[in-house]
C-alpha cells in the first residue's frame, strides 16, 4: 500500500513499518510517499528529518497503543455494517441526548453503551449526541484534549467498537451526532507542528490551527477530510462542532461555510440527511443562516442564553455570567428571540454582545435548548447537577420549557431521572508534571471564586472519574422513576401533537407574570403553563 504524509518544510522523511525503516519520496504539494507492504493491522510511524523519534500519523485511523505510539493501518471496508436501509435522521422535530461513553455505563465502552440504547428508545430520543471519541492521552477524560482526530479512543473500543455502536443505534432508529474539536489540540501528544505549519498561535485551550496563513490549504483539508470521514466511514448522522468562535479564520470563504458545502454534497451522494451543529459564543445568527443567504450554513447552534435564563429562574444563582439573566423578562426574551444578548450590554464581557435573530426567517430548529449539558455541569466547581439544587417540581418546569418550547431540545445523560451522581472534570494524563499542572490550574481557577482547594475535586484522582459514572440502579427508586416518567410523557406529547414541536418562531408567543412567577407558552391550540411558584406544569388544548 502507499503511505503518505504532509511535511512541506522537511528534506528527509522515513516511515518505520513493523520495525523496518523505509525512505519516503518527496511528491507534489509538500507530500511524501512510500509504497510498502502494510496490510490492515500493520504498525507504522514516521521519522522526520534527522530525528529518530517515531511519531504517529497525523491522519491515523487507529492508535491501539495510545497517542504516543505507532499508528496501525485500518481497513474501513472490512466492517460488516447492517444499516444499509438506514434513511438517516433529520434534526427537525428531533430530541437529542448527550452522553459521554466513559461514564454512561460502569464499563465505559461502546459495547456496554449499546446495552442501554433501548432505554433511550423508550424515552423517545431521536439523536444520540456523543462527546468526543478521538484519541487522547490517558485512559479516561472528557475527550476535548484529543490529538489524533481520526483515531477512535482505544479504551472505549477503538474504531470497530464505535462502528458497532453507530450500527446498533441505527438498528433502533436512533441517529448519532458526534462531538468534534477543531479549535485546538490537547497538551499531550500534539505532534502536528513537527510535520508542518499546522499551528498559528494559541487560544484559551491550546495551540490553534493555521486556517488562513501560509500553507494553510492542507491544514484546512485536514479538518474537512476528518469531518467527512465520520460521515462516510463511521456512518454518523451529524457533527457537533466545539467552540467554533475560537477558529481564527480570516478567509473570504470561512472553513465552516466550506464544511457546510462539502457536507451538503456528501449528503446528496449518500442519500441521507447530514447535520452540522455549532457551539458558538458569538450570539451571531449568521452561524445558522443558509449559505445562499450569505451565512455559514450550520444547521443549528447551541443556545446558552436560554440555558442561563432558565438556570437563574430555577436556582436563583446570579454569580458570574448568570448575573445579566436575573433581569425581569430574561427567560421570556430568550424563548421568543433566542438571544438575550442580541446587541445588549454583557456585564460578564464588559461590552455589548450579540446580534438579533430574524425570527421570521430562522426556525427554532436552528437552536438547541437544554437545561443541562456537559459544560454547564462539569465546569461547576463540584460538577453538581441542577437536581442537587432544586426539587422535582422545578425540574419539571425546566423540562417542560425545554421539551415543549420552540427549539430543538437536548437532555444530558441521567437528566431524565434526576440522577444524583455528579459529572465532574476528570483527566488521566500519565505525565506527572502535566497532571500536576492540570490539578493546580483547576483549583486556582475556582479559588478565585471563593472555593477552597479541598472543595474542588482532584481531576487526576480516579475517584473523580468513578463518581461521575451514572448509577443506573437509581431507576429502581420511586422518585427517580417518577421523573423518568415525566420526561417520557413530555416527549410523547411533543411527538403526538405537531404544534408542540412546531419550530416556527414567528408564530410562537409567551405570556409572563410581572414577577416572573409563571410563564405560558402558546403552541398552536395548546397552552403550556409553567408555574415556578407552585412548581407545576399544565398543558391544555383550546379545542
TrEMBL record:
<dbReference type="InterPro" id="IPR017853">
    <property type="entry name" value="GH"/>
</dbReference>
<dbReference type="InterPro" id="IPR044901">
    <property type="entry name" value="Trehalose_TreZ_E-set_sf"/>
</dbReference>
<dbReference type="InterPro" id="IPR014756">
    <property type="entry name" value="Ig_E-set"/>
</dbReference>
<comment type="pathway">
    <text>Glycan biosynthesis; trehalose biosynthesis.</text>
</comment>
<keyword id="KW-0119">Carbohydrate metabolism</keyword>
<keyword id="KW-0963">Cytoplasm</keyword>
<dbReference type="InterPro" id="IPR006047">
    <property type="entry name" value="GH13_cat_dom"/>
</dbReference>
<dbReference type="InterPro" id="IPR013783">
    <property type="entry name" value="Ig-like_fold"/>
</dbReference>
<feature type="domain" description="Glycosyl hydrolase family 13 catalytic">
    <location>
        <begin position="98"/>
        <end position="442"/>
    </location>
</feature>
<keyword id="KW-0326">Glycosidase</keyword>
<dbReference type="Pfam" id="PF00128">
    <property type="entry name" value="Alpha-amylase"/>
</dbReference>
<comment type="similarity">
    <text>Belongs to the glycosyl hydrolase 13 family.</text>
</comment>
<dbReference type="InterPro" id="IPR012768">
    <property type="entry name" value="Trehalose_TreZ"/>
</dbReference>
<keyword id="KW-0378">Hydrolase</keyword>
<protein>
    <recommendedName>
        <fullName>Malto-oligosyltrehalose trehalohydrolase</fullName>
        <ecNumber>3.2.1.141</ecNumber>
    </recommendedName>
</protein>
Amino acid at each position: 500500500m502507499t503511505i503518505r504524509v504532509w511535511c512541506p518544510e522537511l528534506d528527509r522523511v522515513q516511515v518505520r513499518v513493523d520495525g523496518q525503516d523505509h525512505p519516503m519520496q518527496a511528491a507534489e504539494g509538500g507530500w511524501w510517499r512510500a509504497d510498502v507492504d502494510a496490510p490492515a493491522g500493520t504498525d507504522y510511524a514516521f521519522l522526520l528529518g534527522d530525528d529518530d523519534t517515531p511519531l504517529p500519523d497525523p491522519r491515523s485511523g487507529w492508535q491501539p497503543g495510545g497517542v504516543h505510539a505507532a499508528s496501525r493501518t485500518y481497513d474501513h471496508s472490512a466492517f460488516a455494517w447492517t444499516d444499509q436501509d438506514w434513511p438517516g435522521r433529520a434534526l427537525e422535530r428531533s430530541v437529542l441526548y448527550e452522553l459521554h461513553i466513559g461514564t454512561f455505563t460502569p464499563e465505559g465502552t461502546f459495547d456496554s453503551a449499546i446495552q442501554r440504547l433501548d432505554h433511550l428508545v423508550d424515552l423517545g430520543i431521536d439523536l444520540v449526541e456523543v462527546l468526543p471519541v478521538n484519541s487522547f492521552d490517558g485512559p479516561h477524560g472528557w475527550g476535548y484534549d484529543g490529538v489524533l482526530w481520526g483515531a477512535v479512543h482505544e479504551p472505549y473500543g477503538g474504531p470497530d467498537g464505535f462502528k458497532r455502536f453507530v450500527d446498533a443505534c441505527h438498528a433502533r432508529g436512533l441517529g448519532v451526532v458526534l462531538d468534534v474539536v477543531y479549535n485546538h489540540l490537547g497538551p499531550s501528544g500534539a505532534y502536528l507542528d513537527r510535520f508542518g505549519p499546522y499551528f498559528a498561535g494559541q487560544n484559551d485551550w491550546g495551540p490553534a490551527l493555521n486556517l488562513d496563513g501560509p500553507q494553510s490549504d492542507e491544514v484546512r483539508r485536514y479538518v474537512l477530510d476528518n469531518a467527512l470521514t465520520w460521515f462516510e466511514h463511521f456512518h454518523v448522522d451529524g457533527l457537533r462542532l466545539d467552540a467554533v468562535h475560537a477558529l481564527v479564520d480570516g478567509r473570504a470563504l470561512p472553513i465552516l461555510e466550506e464544511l457546510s458545502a462539502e457536507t451538503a454534497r456528501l449528503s446528496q451522494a449518500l442519500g441521507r440527511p447530514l447535520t452540522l451543529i455549532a457551539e458558538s459564543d458569538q450570539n451571531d445568527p449568521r452561524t445558522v443562516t443558509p449559505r445562499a443567504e450569505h451565512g455559514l450554513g450550520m444547521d443549528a447552534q447551541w443556545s446558552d442564553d436560554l440555558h442561563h435564563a432558565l438556570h437563574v429562574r430555577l436556582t436563583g444563582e446570579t454569580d458570574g455570567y448568570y448575573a445579566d439573566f436575573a433581569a425581569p423578562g430574561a427567560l421570556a426574551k430568550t424563548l421568543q428571540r433566542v438571544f438575550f444578548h442580541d446587541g445588549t450590554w454583557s456585564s460578564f464581557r464588559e461590552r455589548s454582545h450579540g446580534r438579533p435573530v430574524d425570527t421570521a426567517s430562522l426556525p427554532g430548529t436552528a437552536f438547541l435548548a437544554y437545561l443541562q449539558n456537559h459544560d454547564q455541569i462539569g465546569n461547576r466547581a463540584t460538577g453538581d447537577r441542577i437536581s442537587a439544587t432544586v426539587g422535582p417540581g422545578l425540574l419539571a418546569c425546566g423540562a417542560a420549557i425545554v421539551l415543549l418550547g420552540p427549539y430543538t431540545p437536548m437532555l444530558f445523560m441521567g437528566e431524565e431521572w434526576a440522577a444524583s451522581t455528579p459529572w465532574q472534570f476528570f483527566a488521566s494524563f500519565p505525565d506527572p508534571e502535566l497532571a500536576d499542572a492540570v490539578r493546580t490550574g483547576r483549583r486556582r481557577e475556582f479559588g478565585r471564586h471563593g472555593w477552597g482547594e479541598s472543595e474542588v475535586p482532584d481531576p487526576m484522582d480516579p475517584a473523580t472519574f468513578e463518581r461521575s459514572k451514572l448509577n443506573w440502579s437509581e431507576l429502581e427508586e420511586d422518585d427517580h422513576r417518577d421523573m423518568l416518567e415525566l420526561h417520557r410523557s413530555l416527549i410523547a406529547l411533543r411527538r403526538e401533537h405537531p404544534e408542540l414541536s412546531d419550530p416556527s418562531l414567528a408564530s410562537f408567543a409567551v405570556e409572563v407574570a410581572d414577577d416572573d412567577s409563571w410563564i405560558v407558552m402558546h403552541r398552536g391550540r395548546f397552552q403550556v403553563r409553567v408555574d415556578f411558584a407552585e412548581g407545576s406544569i399544565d398543558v391544555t388544548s383550546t379545542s
